[in-house]
Amino acid sequence: MPVNRKWGKLISLVVLLVVLVTANGEAKVAAQSQGPERVNKEINVPAKIAFTSNQHLFLVDGRDASGKIKQITKDGYAEIVGWSPDGKWLLFVKHKGNDNYSTPGYVWIVSADGSKAVQVDERAVYERPKWSPKANELAYTVNIGSNEEPRPLLIVKDVQDYGELALQSTTKADFADFAWMPDGENMLVSLPAEKNKPMTLALRTLAGKPLAAYPIAEPPKVEEGIYLWAATGLKVSPDGKAVAYFVRYNSGSLSADGVPIQRFDLTQPGKKPIELGTGLAYPDWLAWAPNSEQLAFIDGTDRIATTNKQLKLADRAGKVKTVSPGPIVVDTYPVWIPKAPYSLLFTRGLATPYSYDPKKVMVPEQGIWRRSADGAEQQVTKGEANTADYYPASSPDGKQLLFLRLDQAEHGSLFVQGIGEDADKQIELIKDITGDIGYYANYLPPWVSVYWE
């Protein structure tokens, strides 16, 4: 199955969904014409914040008492990727049309103060670009061929102090997905299964030199039609010893309802991967603890993100613990607090049948929860019956929390509050943040990205 077709059926479904859900898109944009506003200018938040509103990208420095918000894009559709390791640059994708499904996207970076935006490549991006974990280097793929005869390339560029771009390498992208290794020196790529060829993980240098290959399955029986095709959503543990991923089928529609989640020990290549569960193939729903001891993931089938999604934890041996109280709730978006003893933040609300109403949130009363290292759980944020909280972003010391509180399906405000012993009242920081509910209300990609100082 060609690399460029692995999302084919899924994208068709997404486009159909967007047409149905946002048929009144022009009316919605007109109704949301009011720009974002810094509500509280007195509180000092030591963070750089990127967010979207009315399809455009905005930046704000939480330490700036003036509360000035800088608009970065004024046309197209902006999709946030994330901050560089040093927080000097924000990576984003800009689509020429009014959505991120049916129009091509292009890789851009913008300086943290908003003074300089640079288009990284004139060619449309093929997959989501990724920062190096160690340096201001980014990697992305482009297709220099056609849809019928694709020729995908992996491009690695260095972002220098003033936004100059230096090409580091250009190699053939013969893989289904890639991930930076924690050292920033090598990449782990996923080679799809073919007739007489198994799914394989391969370790390569940035220049494409092979270092190791790890077959993770037997060759598929292609004559049966449907088979496990490739590992995607690769998440390498911080110590570089293991990788978690989703195993997609060679059918986009089948993969959309849930795929196997596996963990592979890179230090013991002779052992088979451990299957942890089944879930939707969203890398944002896989999260390694900073010490690599645990993997948090969201388990549950059915493409709808408002029901049947449960938080689970896997230890180094692959032993899985279910921490969700059951199908009565829906869990998403696990994020670890960086400081030991490594508490886990995640969103939790009452499971809700999927029903889109632009004036209502998708999961009423959803809040941010914290699971401490000892296993104790407590609700950190609590709104009203008609609100839902998303995108927990903890400060490095685990004392402050930024999060998005929705009051409508595609509208909300950024709040700040303390965590644990430092808990205090919730303060609205920025209002009129907007975005898309994503594929069946997964709220991905995120509307907000935070770099704590």
UniProtKB/TrEMBL annotation:
<protein>
    <recommendedName>
        <fullName>Translocation protein TolB</fullName>
    </recommendedName>
</protein>
<feature type="signal peptide">
    <location>
        <begin position="1"/>
        <end position="27"/>
    </location>
</feature>
<keyword id="KW-0732">Signal</keyword>
<dbReference type="InterPro" id="IPR011042">
    <property type="entry name" value="6-blade_b-propeller_TolB-like"/>
</dbReference>
<dbReference type="Pfam" id="PF07676">
    <property type="entry name" value="PD40"/>
</dbReference>
<dbReference type="InterPro" id="IPR011659">
    <property type="entry name" value="WD40"/>
</dbReference>
<comment type="similarity">
    <text>Belongs to the TolB family.</text>
</comment>
